Amino acid sequence: MADTAEKVPAAESSSSSAEASIAVEKTEPTTTEKKKWGDVEDDDEEEANAVSELNSLSIKEEEKHESVLEEPEDSNIKAVTSGDTPYTSASRFEDLNLSPELMKGLYVEMKFEKPSKIQAISLPMIMTPPHKHLIAQAHNGSGKTTCFVLGMLSRVDPNLREPQALCICPTRELANQNVEVLQKMGKFTGIAVEVAVPERTRGVSNMRRDAVSAQVVIGTPGTIKKWIAFKKLGLNHLKILVFDEADQMLATDGFRDDSLRIMKDIERVNPTFQVLLFSATFNETVKDFVARTVKDPNQLFVKREDLALDSVKQYKVVCPNEQTKIEVIKDQIMELGDIGQTIIFVRTKVSANKLHKALAEMGYDVTSVHGSMENEDRDKIVKEFKDCLTQVLIATDVIARGFDQQRVNLVVNYNMPTKHDSGGEPDYEVYLHRVGRAGRFGRKGAVFNLLLDDRRDIEVMEKIEKYFGAHVKEIKSWNSEEEYKIALKEAGLLDE
Ligand code: ADP
Ligand code: MG
């Protein structure tokens, strides 16, 4: 038993080998209909300056916490370097030549012990001259944020009060989260950061603001584009540009046009800037496009079959109708007691509201978040969940990517992820990202896919299993408490 999410094909060896570089000509983007979640309405700034107090920089041994978990050793990342710069993987943060201020941020504030695999490989590539571009794919929850946050912090000049690093994210939640990480990690450096997302209150414009003087700006593309256009964000000193969730930032149904525009604006004033592209997913189409757009990059990739997280067990349940899906959530999932936090993914804001209402009427305490909410409410709901004041969050795909909450160990797909304009084709990338909200940095987790008893849902699940070469185990009867318990025990979330 226990063949849940087992990988079918044998994993290929993944030694880091230097191979020929790719990437040459540039192409113009193709434009199709847009689906954007992050940055629908766009104004306004929000001050979020980094703390610049500089305490004593000595790092006491006892302040170095034990790392909570060890990353699995078998995270098969394949490296392809461009040119002949030699890179040595950094097995310790000490190998990276970081300032004492940054070392203190890593050990004392972040409480990290050693770099994860993607950090060990990518950080030398990011920091070593000639500062080549980097396309980096690594598993969900494997610590990609630290790669680019540390990259930005170590490359900017704290004494120059001008924007030098820019990070673009698909949603306000992710921009805010990345700002928080940077403030924490950079606490002792004196480096300031500003978040560029639409104002909390819609319709309020922030275009009367002063020009940005913070060294790092992190935000969503609409606001960043506006700040550039209105000369609030100067590009003269910009030397590093990061795309988090880069495949979405460069997809035609994501933010490709905005991203290319921003890249071109920077290139015009500063042709030698460095671009970093990070994501857990790069499908072939996006990969091809990136290869034609970003010249001579170093590259890190993971094979599709190796992307599923071993620590997160996946299950599917066929439910006779919509009502029984709600019953599964109510009778099985909500009754599990204290097993951590749960995210229930739905397809639309209408489903979010419906499910929220149904569960609230049954007396359950749930909150929900989707892109049509007021920004202020959206921020508040997410913050409450992050502060563990709430346990169950119903969400559309606004938080499918990047959202990092270590206590989330259960993900429920109330609706399966399908592409918006494709007649119900699975959205493979979104599936993987949803699953990746559980099991952060090797933690245990479980995913329940609630399928309606029609060909469509069942086919979507089958296609997803085939695409990732994973077997998702079935809960045979939707109302068998016993089966859910067995599943959760197997996932390590319930005691024997
Ligand atoms: P992703 O690769 O999905 O972007 P994140 O960067 O959000 O992953 O990191 C996932 C979690 O792992 C975060 O909570 C982060 O604090 C933690 N983490 C990252 N790097 C380390 C490390 N070197 N040691 C311990 N925990 C880490
Ligand atoms: Mg991330």
Automatic annotation (TrEMBL):
Ranges of biased composition (kind: Basic and acidic residues): 25-39, 59-68
Record-annotated Helicase ATP-binding domain positions: 125-300
Keyword RNA-binding applies: yes
GO MF terms, alphabetically ordered: ATP binding; hydrolase activity; mRNA binding; RNA helicase activity
Domain of life the protein comes from: Eukaryota
Any one biological process term the GO annotation gives: response to abscisic acid
GO CC, one annotated term: cytoplasm
PANTHER family tied to this protein: ATP-DEPENDENT RNA HELICASE DBP3
Protein name: RNA helicase
